[in-house]
UniProtKB/TrEMBL annotation:
Keywords of the record: Membrane, Transmembrane, Transmembrane helix
Keyword Transmembrane helix: yes
Name of the protein in question: DUF2798 domain-containing protein
Organism whose genome encodes this protein: Priestia koreensis
Listed InterPro entries: DUF2798
Source organism phylogeny: Bacteria, Bacillati, Bacillota, Bacilli, Bacillales
Highest taxon listed in the record's lineage: Bacteria
Glycoprotein keyword on record: no
Residues that span the membrane, as ranges: 9-29, 41-60, 81-106, 126-145
Length: 159
């Protein structure tokens, strides 16, 4: 969808912001941290999650997901299939990475989280992140991106 690197950066920022805020809140509520944190700590935690998610998406998960999607054996001509494939690979990669980040943050905040919880966190995060990405955040961000960010060629009214 983005046509330039600059557009790709904006699209990634928009998608990461939405996903990081919703998934961060979901995980804070699920772990019980939401009631224990001050408003400032909550905002700082969500901001940190956004920054980490954006760097992970930009440097690791995004390039890998796109490269893998183009290597998979199916026709690349159908735009919706490519969007679904890349979105699926992105969610899998981001859930794996951000679940580890969340576990590290939870351990430092609460002192009780352990790596044995990683598999359970991955599953619980995937079950929320995948439909969130496909049904809500993906369409909303694409709409906002096209409406406010992506530059379209001016329409010619004649010669």
């Amino acid at each position: 969808m983005p046509k330039t690197k600059k557009e790709g950066l904006y699209f990634g920022l928009m998608m990461c912001f939405g996903m990081a805020v919703v998934m961060g809140m979901y995980n804070m509520i699920r772990s019980g941290q939401y009631e224990q944190l001050t408003f400032g700590q909550l905002v700082l935690g969500l901001l940190l999650a956004f920054v980490v998610a954006f760097v992970v998406e930009l440097v690791i998960v995004g390039p890998f997901a796109r490269k893998l999607a183009f290597k998979l054996p199916f026709t690349k001509k159908k735009k919706v299939i490519m969007i679904l494939t890349i979105s699926t690979l992105m969610v899998i990669g981001m859930v794996l990475c951000m679940s580890a980040f969340g576990l590290i943050m939870s351990h430092s905040a609460l002192g009780g989280a352990s790596w044995s919880e990683y598999g359970e966190n991955v599953w619980k995060n995937f079950v929320v992140a995948y439909p969130l990405q496909l049904l809500i955040m993906g369409p909303v961000v694409r709409f906002l991106f096209v409406k406010f960010v992506q530059k379209t060629a001016p329409v010619s009214l004649g010669s």
